[in-house]
Design goal:
Layout: H1 20-23, H2 26-34, E1 38-40, E2 44-47, H3 50-55, H4 64-69, E3 76-80, H5 114-129, H6 140-146, E4 151-154, H7 166-175, E5 179-184, H8 189-197, E6 204-208, H9 214-221, H10 228-239, E7 245-252, H11 261-269, E8 276-281, H12 300-314, E9 317-322, E10 327-331
Helix pairs in contact: 5-7, 8-10, 11-12
Length: 356
Amino acid sequence: MKSTTQQPLLSKPKIESTESTKLFTDDYKNELENASYAIVGNHSAVEICGWTKKSMKGNEGGCYKQKFYGIRSHQCTQMSPAAVACDQKCTFCWKANEFFSGKQDLMEEANDDPNDIIEDSITAHLKKLSGFGGNERIDKQTFEESKHVRHFAISLTGEPTLYKRLPEMIEELHRREISSFLVTNGLHPEVLEKLDKENALPTQLYMSLDAPDKKTWKKIDIPLIPDFWERVLGSLKTMSKLKTRKVLRMTLVREWNDFDAKGYADLIRRSGEDTMIEVKSYMHLGPARKRLSKKNMLDHEEVRIFAKKIAGELGWKIIDEAENSRVVLIAKNDWEGRKIDFGNPIPDKVSNPFSC
C-alpha cells in the first residue's frame, strides 16, 4: 500500500474554528499550552514525547515501544482526538485530569473531520520539531527522517474512544501508511466492537488494566460512570475476539495496586492467549506529583518480581524488558513479528511497505 498523501511541512493548521474554546475551557487550554501541548481544532491535542526529543540525538535510543515493537520514536506523533474528556480521573495520571468534568456527552459536539485532525496534528508536531534542525547535537539524518511521521500514538490525554469518528481516523492513518497504537481505559467495549465491525482496528490496541478487582479499580482510577466494572469486563471479552495486536498495560503504584497477581491473571485470561502484558511502574511526573509521592514508584527489579508472579500464574513468560522505563513485557510466547518492520524511514523510498 503506497502512500498517496504528502505530509504537510510546517503549514498553517487548517482547523481555525471560532469555537475553539467551546470544548476546551480557557483554563484547561492554558494549562495544556503551558505544558507545551499544541491545541488542534476543537477537541484534539498534540505533544512532543520526551523520548522523541531524546531520539533526535541519534545515540540515546527511543522509548520502550521502540525496543518492544519497533516503533521509531523520532517518527512518532503523540496525540489525542478527545483531549477534552475522560470518564476516569486516574490517581497516577500524569496529565491534568482535574479539568475533566465527567461530561462525556461533551464529545457529542466533537465533530472535527478525521482527515483534518491528522493533517493538523502532523503539522503541529513538525512545527514543534523544527527547532531541532539548528541544534548541533542533533543527528542530521534522524532529523530528516523525523519529517516523515510513520506512527500515531493515540493516547496523550482524555479517552480517545469517546471520539465518535475514530474508525474513520484510523482508516485514514492506515491509508497513509501511518501505524496506529490506540490506548483505551476499557470503559467502551462498544467502540472496540465498532472498530472491528468497520474493519478499522488499530495496528496495536492497548487497554489499561489498573487493578485486580472492582474495589481497587474504583479507588485508583476514580471512574465517573456507575457500571465501570461491567464495561471493563466487557472490553476484556471483546479483546479476546479481535484480530489485531493487543496489549494490556498495568501501571503499578506502590501500596495502591501492586498486589494480587492471581487477580490480575484471572482478568488477563479473559482477553485471550494472544494478548501481551506490559507491567510498568508509576512515574512521578506532571500533575500526578500533586496526588502521589516518589515513594509510590517501584524500581525495575520490583516490577520484574511482580511481573514474574503474574507470568507464573498464567504459565506465560517474560519476553522483554526496558529498565530505563521500569517496564516488563509478558506473553504466552514470543514471535518473530513482534517488532514491526517499518521498512525504509523515508516513505517515498519504501520498496516493501509494511502492513498497518
